[in-house]
Amino acid sequence: MILWESQPVLIVYRFVTGTPKQLSSIIQGGRNGIPDEWGSNEKRRLMFMSAIFKLLGLKSNSSTELKSPPLSDLHLSGLNPGEVSDLLKTLGILRNTNGSEANPTVIEAENTTFLFEDGGITAHKSMLESFVGDSSMTTRVKTYEKAPPLHEKTPYFNISTYFQHLRSYQDQPAKKISYGSILLYGELMTSTNSIIDKNFKLLQKLPSGFTVVATTQTAARGRGSNPWISPLGGLVFSVVVRHNIKHALKAPVVFIQYLVALSIVKSIKYYDTGYDKIPIYIKWPNDIYARAKSNMLGKPDNKSDFSKIGGILVNANFSSDEFFLVIGCGINVTNTMPTTSLKILAESVDPPLPAYEHERLLAKIMVTFELHYARFLKEGFQAFEQEYYKYWLHSDQVVNLEDSHNSKACIQGISMDDGMLVVSELNEHNVRTGKQFKLQADGNSFDFFNGLLRKKK
């Protein structure tokens, strides 16, 4: 699965005004070639966008059926005994103690009503409505305090297999670690980030390492206002990190997005023997790129050899001396659309490698990130600087700065003081002038393919 930014409509319109024949039957009538009925004709709009994606070299679903499937129930389970019970107590959920079936309990958060119920009990709809009214407007969370749900309940993600891999990886270090031990899974949800980031009453009671996983999403989110495509076959997850303000000097919060990117790349490359050949890189500030299988012998100069294969989104809230971070990640694992996937890359090396398993890769990422984060708190990002540069795409890359002078610059690296991108100005002969700029990740957009750094609008 990949998180992929949609092209702006204006750019799409300018692209199609070159009168490609493939669109002639779609863009007829109306003003300036734009049909008047598109505002009310969703089917024609989908046909138009499908044709655009094909012209851009992307694959798209040819179906124009407008069916919105219902969101699935969520499943809450833990690796260790008592983890789910302890979390439910923290959330203020009261369980029956008379030995009878526990009643469902409701948590009213800012944007979502959560109904927690025992995963081994199927409550009748009339019973649910006695607690929450219209049950169709409520997110049901089935809790499993003794064992995770059977695989038949979560056919696209085997939670038991995930926990087995997680325990195996957690047993290797000499220190106790816990990220990913409490898992909330849903086959179809709106967004793994939004379901906790937009419900701060819930978020502020969740522990660091609490992880949300979805098979598909209906409202995946990107940086700024960018939407994201979330097809079947990707690994989509979010993890909570509570970062205390006392770490501000040694471990500024801005570096955590870089730490996550490094953890993902290393987990992919150290997944198993032979996977270090997988050509995966970091694009500043928070994307994962893959090199095309046609050019895998060395690091190519041609930027068109790269495709986006994953992305990271960090949302932050602050309260009571803590940053409450929700770190969302999406990685193309087995899906073929819209660009490429880890499966395709693994099949392309010599000899071909088995496809990545979602459960095992997630467990690897969780353990790698937690170990890196613990070291980050003690030593800062300087401890990872050279390793980070080993995997990123931008050493000495020449870029154009979209400013009043359209300056040209050479990327130097990341400032270890504040996490900003450091660039050196170049003159018309590509010689450094001695002037440097610092660019914020949140305030600038990096068009890697065109070598253009611009301010976000």
From TrEMBL:
Domain BPL/LPL catalytic, first and last residues per copy: 168-377
Family the UniProt entry places it in: Belongs to the biotin--protein ligase family.
Xref: Gene3D superfamilies: Bira Bifunctional Protein, Domain 2
Name under which the protein is recorded: Biotin holocarboxylase synthetase, variant 2
Transmembrane domains' residue ranges: none
Keywords linked to the UniProt accession: Ligase
Cellular component GO terms held in the UniProt record: cytoplasm
InterPro entries: aa-tRNA-synth_II/BPL/LPL (IPR045864), Biotin_CoA_COase_ligase (IPR004408), BPL_LPL_catalytic (IPR004143)
GO molecular function: biotin--[biotin carboxyl-carrier protein] ligase activity
Pfam families (UniProt xref): BPL_LplA_LipB
Species of provenance: Orbilia oligospora
Signal peptide positions (record): none
